[in-house]
Amino acid sequence: MDISFFSRGIKLSRQVTSGKIEQIPPSERVVLPLQQGSGPPAELSIEIGDAVEVGQTLARGASNSGADLHASISGEVTAIEDLHFPNGTTVKALVIEGDGKDTWIEPDRDDKPLIASPDELLERIRCGGVIREGGETKSLAQVIDEAMSPRGHLFSTGSTVAKPVRHIAVRFADQDPHLNALAALTATIGDETADLDLGVKVLAAITGAEQIHFVLDNKQNSPGVDKLAEENDYVVLRLDAANYPDLSSPMVARAVSGKEPDTAFKRVHENGILVLDVDTVLQTALAVRDRRPVVDRLITVYGPAGAGVFKARLGTPLADIVSAAGQEKNIGKMVLGGPMKGLAHHTLDFPLTKEIPAITLFAQNQVTLAVNDPCVGCGLCAMVCPIRLTPGMLSRYCEFSSWDLAQEAHLFSCIECGCCAYVCPAGRSMVQFMVQGKTELLSTRRSES
Ligand code: SF4
Ligand code: SF4
User: Closest Cα to residue 66, out of 46, 90, 94, 40?
Assistant: First the structure.
């Protein structure tokens, strides 16, 4: 395999799709896990046997900032079952059997949402079930809350320090150039930028951000987005999406601020920069103005037959989406997410959740097994690591359970981009070593506290 890389990343080919978004019809049965993204599961607000309409709240987000969960089809809630996630966790999930009517809850539109207080706007985002994608999937209200809450910093005085959000960066292209959903969504915006405009202004009103940045791939043609930026004095940043991971949140934060981001414990937003995908911003507009909750999501399906972008209701069986993409034959391996950062899963009998931006499929003859040979010390991984870590050493510390050494070598700053694994001639499972190390250290810390 020819590998093309540059200092702090690798060169990947952009995946070309038709640029269209295909709508997948509502399924007869959906399965909705109570936990969508990180954080505790939402608390049930309906009962088995209840009839529900599309958009009806099924469960209230845990704590004051957890995202609510909504029905994605109309019908009857028939069961709560265990759902096994690819990361090994098991989560309770609601089953809705559809009535085929696709009846929606009554809209409750507010034509002047910007008059509402920042707290009210944040609550509408939480109630709308909006999540922050493009990183650790999390309730957007929770991300904003964390980014803005004061924090005890000064150990000697016990004083708290406010953490203002100074910049919001809106990303219009996927971080992984194999995926195309955000570019396809941006193409549909055209000159109809009212929702984008509202979403950005709502987020600026809540956070008090001083500067908005629109981050696009340098190959994107987006006159409507450019015009909106010009009218509002937003900064337009054009990056090369083929230079992976230049569109990841830490690298966008670096481009915005000109400084190295603090990536430890995924703290990019604590540097005063909130990086959000364009679909999150559009969902924000719908949640605050139309009170329309999140009941569907965009997904790229990328496999041997090419790539396509689809929109499907949450809870739709992945088998239905793969079949709509015409890629159901000769599947050797499936990855939930893109090829660089996704997690392998063994079954298509799994529902679409807010955490799944893509399905990557490999044909049987494309599947290779990780060899995990010993590190030969070639240093390629250190060259491509965007965070300037020493992945070879880190992987060895984790492989041999030297957890303290791994922590001292900044294991928690790893953004799990997969560049090191991509170039490693020894075929080492680099990201898996890093994830295992973080999991061990966090569970030790929890048991000691
Ligand atoms: S996965 Fe972590 S260690 Fe490897 S290149 Fe990415 S940031 Fe660096
Ligand atoms: S690329 Fe692989 S073999 Fe080379 S130093 Fe890194 S871990 Fe070791």
Answer: 40
Above 60 in pLDDT, residue 114? yes
Q: Which atom of ligand 2 is nearest to the CA of 423?
A: 1
CA-angle at 69, arms to 31 and 28, nearest 5°: 30
Bridge partners (DSSP) of residue 334 are 345, 361
Find the range with the poorest average confidence among 3-12, 85-94, 101-110, 250-259. Answer: 3-12
pLDDT (0 to 100) of residue 76: 98
Element (H, E) at 169: strand 167-171
User: In sequence order, what DSSP letters do the residues of 257-282 get, joined into one string?
Assistant: HSS----GGG-GGGGTEEEEEHHHHH
To test the pocket of ligand 1, the residue of 5, 385, 436 to mutate (highest count of ligand atoms within 8 Å of its CB) is 385
User: What is the predicted pLDDT for the residue at 24?
Assistant: 96
Residue 1 — very low, low, confident or very high, per pLDDT cuts 50/70/90?
Answer: low
The full set of domains in the chain, from first to last, is 22-106+295-364 (no CATH), 113-150+161-290 (3.40.50), 385-448 (no CATH)
Tell me which residues have their CB closer than 6 angstroms to ligand 1.
385-387, 389, 391, 394, 414-420, 430-431, 434
